[in-house]
Amino acid sequence: MAAPSEKTAADMNGRWRLNKGLSGNTNELMTLQGVSWIMKKAISLADIIICITQRGTGAETVVVLENTANFGLRGTTETRLLNWISTSHKDPIWGHVHGRSKFLSAGEAAQEASLTGLFQHFGMSAQDIIYSEAEAADGTWKSQMLWGFELIEGTRYFVRNTRVCRGSKQATAQIVYDYIP
User: Fold this and answer.
1) Which superkingdom, per the lineage (predicted)?
2) What distance lies between CA 5 and its chain's CA centroid?
């Protein structure tokens, strides 16, 4: 279902279902992140829903993402502080992860050379975006993610454009979500 027009990076509160038909290939991303074959298979078959709770404004914003899946897969909870200060957490899928996030304007994203391929390639035109970086605590992989809203085939969706790098290898994918009223 289309994302309501009032939903923006400043208010993503709600439930969102992964749209596998519109999303890119996340298998490559997970391979670079060291996710096991069996876990990748389970994730590919699961119905994945994220419940987002967002509070605060500007650098005081806190975004909590509760990821749930069927098939008895253990869900994950991510807490993102949008103050660009690195935090750490242990994730049951990705292990120990360090990450940081912040709001970013479309203009800033378009000017940032390291984001080429996440912004321009996917044609993001959002005026407000959340930018996140994450890294395995052991340094084996790094990721960059732009969160925002985009028109795809004439319908507005919540998207997370993602790049994962491991050594000289990298993969990108657009991850698309339907709004659940």
Assistant:
1) Eukaryota
2) 20
- Identify how many contiguous H helices and E strands the chain contains and give both numbers: 3, 10
Distance, in Å, from the CA atom of 4 to the CA atom of 156, rounded to the nearest integer, reads: 8
The residue with greater pLDDT, 147 or 108, is: 147
- DSSP β-bridge partners for residue 142: 135, 165
Two tokens at 46? 């699961």
How buried is 104 (Cβ within 10 angstroms: 0-12 exposed, 13-18 middle, 19+ buried)?
A: buried
Task: Copy the structure tokens of residue 28.
Answer: 């490559």
Domain locations in the chain as residue ranges? 14-180
Residue 126 has pLDDT above 90, yes or no: no
Secondary structure element (H or E) that encloses residue 42, with its range: helix 37-45
2-31 pLDDT, tens per residue?
Answer: 999 999 889 999 999 999 999 999 999 999
Which CATH class, in words, describes the domain spanning 14-180? mainly beta
Residue 170 has pLDDT above 90, yes or no: yes
Q: Which residues of 35-57 are buried (b: 16+ CB within 10 A; e: fewer)?
A: beeeebebbeebebbbbbebeee
Rounded-to-5 percentages of helix, strand, coil across the chain: 15, 50, 35
DSSP 146-165: EEEEEEETTEEEEEEEEEEE
Predicted TM-score (pTM) of this structure: 0.90
